[in-house]
Amino acid sequence: MSTSRDINATLVDTAPAVPTNAAARADVPVPKVEPKRTNLFDLERVQLEDFFEQVLGEKRYRAHQVMKWIHHRYVTDFSDMTDLGKALRAKLEQHAHVHAPSVVLDKASEDGTHKWLLGMDAKNAIETVFIPDKGRGTLCVSSQVGCALNCQFCSTATQGFNRNLSTAEIIGQVWIAARHLGNVPHQQRRLTNVVMMGMGEPLANFDNVVRAMSIMRDDLGYGLANKRVTLSTAGMVPQIDKLGELSDVSLAVSLHAANDELRSELVPLNKKYPIEMLMDACVRYALRKPGTSVTFEYTLMKGVNDQPQHARQLVQLMRSFDRSVQMKGAAKVNLIPFNPFPGTRFERPTDQAIRAFQKLLNDTGMIAPVRRTRGDDIDAACGQLKGQVMDRTRRNSEFRRSLGQQERGDAAA
Ligand code: SF4
């Protein structure tokens, strides 16, 4: 978790001072300089308490009231926070704001899947997807605009890396979805799980992601159990260890191949952290707490990694993991049929080939569910997350049109 020292990096700073010679001359208009206000979405509980104490000169518990207003009741206007005194509301107005990303596009699928295209600034947008299922509702959250890791089968990789998302931009995705769903933490849970599996490599944006996940799991935030928040990584080994020291969320690893030659081709990060190093880090993560499992995602691509020998290699690797953590079934495998996107050289295997691969795993006693494709009619399936895409696809023009409308609307407001 972040300590109170982190707050110095996040809290209020002031705008540049007006030159004294200009300020002293009555005939030179002094530009009005607004102090920069802190976006309270950026602060996890301890930081918000520090903010109340150190910046506002208030009791720390006041922070709890504000967290409930923001994350439980979706109120962002301080004047509507009626159990805060007038003076405190005025101070908050002066030093802080609560600013969520803007909704550029909002699409609902026939199967209940919901997708938002969210504008992070004038140039960048990301996607967030909500997937309802029996008894659960999972939100797939992005951590970066684009991604630098260049996995060969990934739609996001085609746009390169733009920037990390701030904590506010990550938790803002949860806030927008939860508000839309009418989610009430601890009472009416519609949003039961969060997976950090959207655009970007979450461990490459470590501090902001860990802080956002802390708000997701905080009772004053979204009150999700540790195991219901899952971080998915392509395999950044040192950061997996660091995550194990700071957090207790579920870990998922994008594996996609069980031998180094193929994996290095599909996931270039494997050249830096090959499978043995990665699996050792996963074992260390699992061993921190008895009963911890790790999920391994395996995207099935026709003729690439869907052959019987690939299944056998995968079984061997998973068995070795189970032995190392001394727990049968500690390695969980999710099979994900590849979802084609424009320009890709990969193909989805036939249903028959997918079933045959799954059977080879099942025959060894391994449970390996095949992930259903959801939200096809709104391009919301995994691997299709793509925000500001610099090509001539329909989505790009749609995005630009929407962003243009949004900007015009903002200007008119
Ligand atoms: S699969 Fe994940 S880590 Fe790899 S390029 Fe895509 S977003 Fe990045």
Q: What features would you describe in this structure?
A:
It is built from 13 helices and 13 strands. It has 413 residues and is of the alpha/beta class. The strands form 3 sheets. The protein has a 9-stranded mixed sheet. Strand 10 (229-233), helix 8 (237-246) and strand 11 (250-254) form a beta-alpha-beta unit. The radius of gyration is 23 Å and the shape is globular. Mean pLDDT is 86; it is low at 1-26, 385-400 and 407-413. The chain binds iron/sulfur cluster. The site of iron/sulfur cluster has 12 residues, from loops.
Summarize the helices and strands and which ones pair or pack.
Elements: H1 7-10, H2 20-24, E1 38-39, H3 45-55, H4 62-72, H5 86-95, E2 96-97, E3 102-108, E4 114-119, E5 125-133, E6 136-140, E7 144-146, E8 161-164, H6 167-181, E9 193-196, H7 206-217, E10 229-233, H8 237-246, E11 250-254, H9 260-266, H10 275-287, E12 294-300, H11 308-325, E13 331-337, H12 351-362, H13 394-412
Helix pairs in contact: 3-4, 6-7, 8-10, 11-12
Bound molecules: iron/sulfur cluster.
EC number: 2.1.1.192
Domain Radical SAM core: 133-377
Cofactor: [4Fe-4S] cluster
